[in-house]
Amino acid sequence: MSVPVSRSTIGRTLRYDHALDRPSAVEVPVEMPVNIAYGNLPYAVMMATPDDLDDFVAGFSLTEGIVTGLDEIRGVKVDEQADGFVVTVDLVADALSRHLTRRRSLSGRTSCGLCGVESLDQVPGASRAVAPAEPVAPRAIERALASLDDHQPLHRLTRAVHAAAFCDPEGTILMAREDVGRHNALDKLIGACLRAGVQPGQGFIVITSRCSFEMIEKAAIFGVGTLVAISAPTSLAIDRAHALGIALVAVARRDTAVAFTQSPSFQPKAIAS
């Protein structure tokens, strides 16, 4: 793909004593529209970082409820255009038929998770609780957070993107994805896990953003039992985590974190080890 994920621009450092430093080059993340279409019918225009688009559309298709698994996607075609990308997803007949019956219009979601939803019963969500997974010890969360920076090359360059990482039960990061949108980063990660055959019960997810209810729903749809967020959760995120059996750990720092739900997927006693 020819489009870079960052570009250089010129900025000046403003000093509060009214002095100006010399202009210097600053790296900023590239944000472009990605038009996702199913069966040649446009579905959503997402503002995203233009990499890992195959992963993105796989995760997005699952968490939007358009497919129930990767086997319902026959192929993905990515077309670069002057002002963005068109990603056309070829679905199996049954999935396309389901999609056409519930098709709805969305518009440019970078942070909002419900743009285009016309009624509450259209809100995408997990239909059942997550299956019990191997417990996660706090030491594993600590280990994952300690190495997270090493898996965020675009963030180190720009300080302007989110990341989502899948970790094994010991806290080793197996894969990570970045994007200007927190939802997009998680969808990219879920898609990457699907395409690599990673089982959600074999680890936990860390996100670098706040945890709203959509992040819980996406994690539950994927089937992961523990979600760790660097920032705080919302009230609805906590409620949904309780309902879906997800261990929600948030306000995660290098030395402490807050467990907002109790779940078989979390091992608080291990914190004394």
Describe the structure.
- The termini are far apart.
- The chain folds into two domains: 32-122, Ubiquitin-like (UB roll) (Roll), CATH 3.10.20.10; 138-272, Cytidine Deaminase, domain 2.
- Helix 5 (182-196) packs parallel to helix 6 (213-222).
- 26% of the residues lie in helices and 26% in strands.
- The chain has 273 residues and is of the alpha/beta class.
- The model has no long low-confidence stretch (mean pLDDT 88).
Biggest sheet, spatial arrangement of strands: 8-7-9-10-11-12
Low-pLDDT sequence parts: none
Tally of individual helices: 7
Amount of helix: 25-40%
Q: What distance separates the N and C termini?
A: 46 Å
The Rg value, from CA coordinates, equals 19 Å
Instruction: Please tell me the total number of domains.
Output: 2
Strand segment count: 12
> Which class of the largest domain in CATH terms?
Alpha Beta
CATH architecture of the largest domain: 3-Layer(aba) Sandwich
